[in-house]
Amino acid sequence: MTNKNTINSLPLPPGDFGLPIIGESIEFLRDRNFTKKRQEKYGHVFKTHIFGQPTIVAIGADANNYIFTNENKYFTNNWPKSTRELLGAASLSVQVGTEHQKRRKILSQAFQPRALSSYISTVELNTYKYFERWEKLSNFAWYPEIKNYTLDIACKLLVGTESASQSKLGDLYTTWVNGLFSLAINLPWTTFGKAYQSRKLLLQEIENIIQERINSSNSKEDALGLLIQAEDEDGNRLSVEELKDQLLTLIFAGHETLTSAIASFCLLVAQHPQVLAAIRQEQEELGLNMPITLENLKQMTYLEQVLKETLRLVPPVGGAFRKVIETCEFNGYQIPQGWSLLYQIGYTHQDIDIYPQPKQFNPERFNLTSTEDKTKTFSFIPFGGGIRECIGKEFAKLEIKIFAALLLRNYQWELISQQNLDLVMVPTPRPKDGLKVNFQKILV
Ligand code: HEM
Fold it and tell me: Pairing state of beta strands 340-344 and 53-58?
């Protein structure tokens, strides 16, 4: 349907705007079943009013397809003011249109197979370092530890810093992250104000690191080295000013999500001993000393299925917002210009028509003969889709797989009883008590 008059005469999706001004924001933030309840009442597309915006929530593979294939035509990205200002105007997540596409091309050079392959040794070294630490700790809350682990790897690869979680960079970073989804009031004592100050100091640190690297004759093969030298087809490179924003975005986008994914893997396989036994057996059959290479990782097919099922059941990103830039039609409803639109990852993965018994952790859904996620395009979207699909997707899969393979080969872990394993969902899913475990080396 292309006729504008016809679109304008279409009904709005069903739903309720809630209270004046605050709309349904409080229910949205507090009620884990906010979307489920409304989906049951109104169907896959409904309207609400959250974060000061009339918003349409669209659920399922068809909605994802419509959104991902109409980026820049009907939709553009839509971050809260605090996120936009703290990520910076030059951040890939904030850029739009052709600028965004050009930048993606340059940045993606740091995620090509050759580059990924060169990151393996850094990931391996950090993984062993943390495994040794955890063996000594023995009983501990795993989630905050995994967070330090992923931050150290991201910072080592992106800005060349060792053990960043224990350094000044780590402290500044934590204050900066706290402000990303806050009220954007820039005063010295507000969360946003403190985060804004930290952003300035972080950028200064990052600039020093970039300048040092540019001035040194030593061109290292890490992500920073690749990004400094990366060029578009006209030979343009990223300016230092832009590179700073891009690096900060990559550190953030890369490590919070990965932490959640790794922790969910550790939790789910501990709760499913048969799955754990099968992925251990796969490592044994492939050979416990098999070196970690891109080729060898590809052979870990059952582990791949388990990781896929982990990302289906507990996707680190639950969904994302867009802004409607031109009134359009979906499913017979009018989607008005100026409104927000929220696509749903978690609920797409719970579609009973695609994933029977969707709440069950069942890696067999993704075996070679199963067609579950192939039934419909965009029914499996832990990394989003279309032109804004996660740029770090392959790196994320690489890091999780290396972590998992080395863990399975050498260590065992048990969940400590009497802890709350319910998931806190914001900003990324994590067990309430931080995933307390007993961690030991496997004795042979
Ligand atoms: C398991 C780990 C990860 C998950 C589940 C994940 C998920 C996602 C999702 C769903 C999006 C799309 C958001 C949207 O539609 O607006 C996205 C975008 C993005 N991700 Fe990831 N991500 C992960 C790891 C990473 C890593 C390791 C990096 C970088 C090192 C990264 C960098 C980015 C960036 C820069 C974007 C914005 C892309 C753009 O707007 O063009 N992510 N991610």
Answer: parallel
What mean pLDDT comes out for the span 296-315?
A: 97
- Residue 50: give the domain boundaries: 1-59
Residues whose CB falls within 8 Å of the CB of residue 177, separated by 6 or more in sequence, listed in order: 195, 252, 256
> Roughly how many angstroms between the first and final C-alpha of the chain, as a whole number?
67
**Do 28 and 75 fall into the same domain?**
no
Task: Render pLDDT for 168-221 as a digit per residue (tens, 0 to 9).
Answer: 888 899 999 989 888 888 999 999 999 999 999 999 999 999 998 888 866 667
pLDDT one-digit tens code per residue, 310-324: 999 999 999 999 999
Q: How far is the CA of 357 from the centre of ligand 1 (A)?
A: 28
Q: Does residue 413 sit in the same domain as residue 273?
A: yes
- Of ligand 1's listed atoms, the one at least distance from the Cα of 261 is 1
Known binding-site positions: 390
CA angle 397, 398, 399 (to 5 degrees): 95
Helix, strand or coil for residue 415? strand
In 3D space, the residue among 253, 397, 382, 259 whose CA is nearest the CA of residue 313 turns out to be 382
Query: Between helices 168-179 and 240-271, what is the axis angle to 10°?
Result: 80
Task: Return the number of other C-beta atoms located less than 10 Å from residue 359's C-beta.
Answer: 9
Count of the separate structural domains present in the chain? 2
- Verify whether ligand 1 is closer than 6 Å to residue 316 (CB atom): yes
Q: What is the atom index within ligand 1 of the atom nearest the CA of 255?
A: 27
Domain identity same for 46 and 67: no
Closest CA to 71 of 105, 92, 103, 96: 96
Q: Are strands 319-324 and 139-141 parallel, antiparallel or unpaired?
A: unpaired
**134 and 154 inside one domain:** yes
